[in-house]
Amino acid sequence: MARDSYIQQIIGAEKYEQIKYAKVLLVGAGGIGCELLKDLILMGFGEIHIVDLDTIDLSNLNRQFLFRKKDIKKSKAFTAIKAVNKFKYDHTKLVPYMASIMDSDTFNLAWFDQFHLIFNALDNKDARSFINRICLFLKKPFIESGTTGFFGQVVPIFPYESECYDCTIKETPKSFPVCTIRSTPSQPVHCIHWAKNFLFAQLFGEINVSANNDVKTLGSDNKEEINTLINEQNELINLRNSIFDSNSSLEFALNIIKKIFIDDINKLLKIDDLWKTRKRPIPLDISLVKLLENDRKRVLLKQSNIDEILSNFQKLWSLNENLIVLIYSLINLRKRILNSNNPRSFIIDFDKDDEDTLNFAASSANIRSIIFDIPVKSKFDIKQIAGNIIPAIATTNAMMAGFSALQSLNNFNVLQHYLESKIVFTSIESKSMTNPSQLFPGSKTCASCTVLRELLKIKDIDNEKLTLRVLLKKILNNINYKKHFKDSTNEDDQDNNKPEISIVIGKNRLIYDIEFDDNLDRSLKSLGFKENQILTIKDDDDIKTEIELYILEDKTLSNDIYIPKIDNVPEKPKKKKPKVEPDTNPNEPITFDDEDDDENKKQDEDILEDTDDFITILDDGDEPDSSQLNNTMLQEDISAMNEKRKIEDHELDHQTKKIKIDLSLDD
Amino acid sequence: MSLDQLLNPQSSSNEKLSNDEIELYDRQIRLWGMEAQQRIRCTKILLINLSGIGTEIVKNLVLSGINELYLLDNNDVKEEDLATQFFLTEGEDDLFRLDIIGRKKLDVALPQIQELNPRVKIKINTRKSIYDFLDDGVRNLDNKDFFRQFNLVISTQLDSISNLKLNKITRSLNLPFYATSCHGLFGYFFSDLIMYDDLSNADNSHNNHKSNKSNKSNKSNKSNKSDNTHNSNNSNKLIYYPFHSLLSMNCNNSPFKNLRKRQLITKKKRILISVFILTLINYDFKYPSINKNEIKINEELFDEELGKMFGKLELFFEDENPGQIQEETRELLKVFLNNINCEFSPICAILGGSLAQDIINMLSFKNSPVNNFLVLDGLSSEMPIYQIIKKK
């Protein structure tokens, strides 16, 4: 029998032909991605493009079966393709990319449009939402999948027909008030958060003086406490400079320890109000510091002693051991800065796989825990909390990838008379391993799938004569808001024809609203218009739905600008309390998401022993998206932006806020 | 080491995991813990027939870091094996592929499997087939010694008579036994852990037959469970029944016994696939000489068996009765028969994933293992679990 005779028999020769000529996109070559790639290849798909930005890590090898030890640090997408080449069909074409799927210069709308179907095998919400949006633009079906430990889900999404990715509310990670972290910790996770996001960031991260000194963000009414915290922070900036001023690395390390664990604690102790209902912290015993100071012969700080401690990463280290590890990591981190090309501006980011940074966070968190009489944790456990590591196993990934591959058959009308698309969840019921359910219709209040999406074609974006005024005229001509304004006011038609809209380009750059017309005579090019960007048109009265226009250049246009006619913009759905996930089974933990990604407390209670500590830490140190934003923003516009500030309310802004959260996630 | 010893929480003979191992297995140790990983590392498994599901099971178990995998399969590589068995490859690209047709499967697969995880001992046997071990069973002392070196036995795509004989051997040696087969969009696995001391958290369980009140509402079930847990000090003895139960089914030991008429109608499709699978297992036992590829030709014979099965289980859907199968059922049956003996990669992945996970569940006490029959219906993505008990 031929190699493909089974599949021909199962799905029929005709349908198999469709699969053989199908071109699909697989986003992600990680846990689910490797498994799914194998399944799609064995099913004989014609052309598979696979995109992954990541490189291979040792901890991937327990499940990402296409990778070997020798592949560590290589591109996931390219290595996966090389591995499956050995067993692919001759007719299958494979195209790997080592890139971010959200890079619109590499992957524009037309590029996405070439695929019959898109498979998501991602590990973060941000990219998932992005694919969701692209597929909404293209009305292209995609299959979403994710796992967390023993649990998994596969959700086929047919844009505007079934629930989209954003229709269901995704649980956001828990965050802590700053004062809990900075002055009154009560759990190990508070100390870990402090060590990683505050202390480490202050000493070695990007210098960010103003952000954390905003009194409002401290979340405390106690003036004394606020002043103490602000002073403490200013002193830390001086400590940072001591990286360069200190005579020796040991001196530097001990100064930090004295300041953080003795002086700062003593200052906190002076604020009596804080300790009325709490146990008072006990500052580090100065004699311990002295002991280390006098350790000239390096008995305690002997490399073999340090190695011995570090090799026991599952053990709960003693105070002394934590101090030794902290000193060791501080010495190493200082060396890295001094040995860099530009020490004054060199920064180090916390990375759970960077031993120095992890040792620093683990030991300083533990010392703080001891001071506040909180249980200490092993470095192994702290790595999980600080690095937001989600357990991931081969079997769940294999199963979910299998269901994703199986569900894809529906998109080729294979067996449709029997098999309609299903959402598949793993089940913890006793009588079933899965809990399949029908697809749900999209949420009427979903901010993503109720938006009107169209193309905005421009003949020549570089044409300086194309001003915002020209575009605005075209928009007002073609997009009809009339009805709403007639209904809502009694004024004469002239005014009614001037709807109050605002226009936003890209993520959240406001370029026009009724009170902000400074840009009208500027060319589109100078306002930052380029291909593959999205223009959002909003009704300032917030009654009509938003319109998103995807910008494309089309040299064949007869006019300068093409905007489709929209006769009557529908009203925005009334905001109700958003629905929380499909109600498939009340016993089922449903809101989980991703493989190495965000977590859901409900499930974690099932999975982890130390549930209370398994909380995503809101990573306020990292905001690449807003920095990206700044880069694309023209300097001269910033003042206008500040003046307007309308942007703050912009819905897209919420997305940037969300992004914050995803950055702290693993893999 | 016997499995009992292996599972005994007091047994501390296990060597500690090295730091390298902890790093490699990090993401799974965080799920099932160090002790479970140590037990996995001590486990020696015999897998009979590589097959499509076999390939998936091998991949999952070798990745998980078991001690030893012994593969028994003396078949040669056939072209259709390449539909699912991705270890059957050589060299860097497809140019080499045709050279492997006709060679011993395990000879070709061994280097590919070993590469997945160099820490796991992979042994192959291409000289003997499982049939060489079955006829005189453990009366043959060599056979006894052979099976006794493992902690667990898995058979894939094996006929019913052989599974029956094999299960007798594993029972006599107190070895857990899994049997699994895939038929196109459908498949199943059967498990016999004989007697299993379930230390997993009952609330997180795939199996609450231990409370023996399977038809209660969720609420009362929960309270039952907690009562049960409380009474028995977090440990539940799970009783398993041998492969033979699948063949001696009747109304009294039917897994559908407690379904009410309304449920019978609403769950008909889901039940039908399970009944087809059970019928196939019985058919295979009764007519071992008929090649499975010929079942389609002998459809009448299968019909007859199916009718008998409906009768034995007292399953009367609406006015369906033996010998008169309804049109809707017939259509589904046609699809089913068309899938027999085919291997399909997503189904192998799902079934191989759930079987391997079940073994890890058994070793880790994180979830209760399946007791004792799981069906996969690729049409509906349902995976119902039944307990099939012995005929009274």
Automatic annotation (TrEMBL), chain A:
Residues 567-610 are annotated as: Disordered. Pathway: Protein modification; protein sumoylation. It comes from the Eukaryota. GO terms for molecular function: ATP binding; metal ion binding; SUMO activating enzyme activity. The active site is at 179 (glycyl thioester intermediate). SUPFAM superfamilies: Activating enzymes of the ubiquitin-like proteins. InterPro entries: ThiF/MoeB/HesA, ThiF_NAD_FAD-bd, Ub-E1_IAD_1, Ub_act_enz_dom_a_sf, Uba2, Ubiquitin-activating_enz, UBQ-activ_enz_E1_Cys_AS. GO terms for cellular component: cytoplasm; SUMO activating enzyme complex. Residues 9-415 form the THIF-type NAD/FAD binding fold domain. GO terms for biological process: protein sumoylation. Keywords: ATP-binding, Metal-binding, Nucleotide-binding, Ubl conjugation pathway, Zinc. ATP binds at residues 28-33, 52, 60-63, 76, 100-101, 123-128. It holds the Pfam family ThiF. Zn(2+) binds at residues 164, 167, 446, 449. Heterodimer. PANTHER family: SUMO-ACTIVATING ENZYME SUBUNIT 2, UBIQUITIN-ACTIVATING ENZYME E1. Belongs to the ubiquitin-activating E1 family. This is Ubiquitin-activating enzyme E1-like. It comes from Ascoidea rubescens DSM 1968.
UniProtKB/TrEMBL annotation, chain B:
GO terms for biological process: protein sumoylation. It comes from Ascoidea rubescens DSM 1968. InterPro entries: ThiF/MoeB/HesA, ThiF_NAD_FAD-bd, Ubiquitin-activating_enz. GO terms for cellular component: cytosol; SUMO activating enzyme complex. Residues 205-235 are annotated as: Disordered. PANTHER family: SUMO-ACTIVATING ENZYME SUBUNIT 1, UBIQUITIN-ACTIVATING ENZYME E1. Residues 25-388 form the THIF-type NAD/FAD binding fold domain. It comes from the Eukaryota. Gene3D superfamilies: NAD(P)-binding Rossmann-like Domain. GO terms for molecular function: SUMO activating enzyme activity. This is THIF-type NAD/FAD binding fold domain-containing protein. Residues 214-223 have a biased composition (Low complexity).
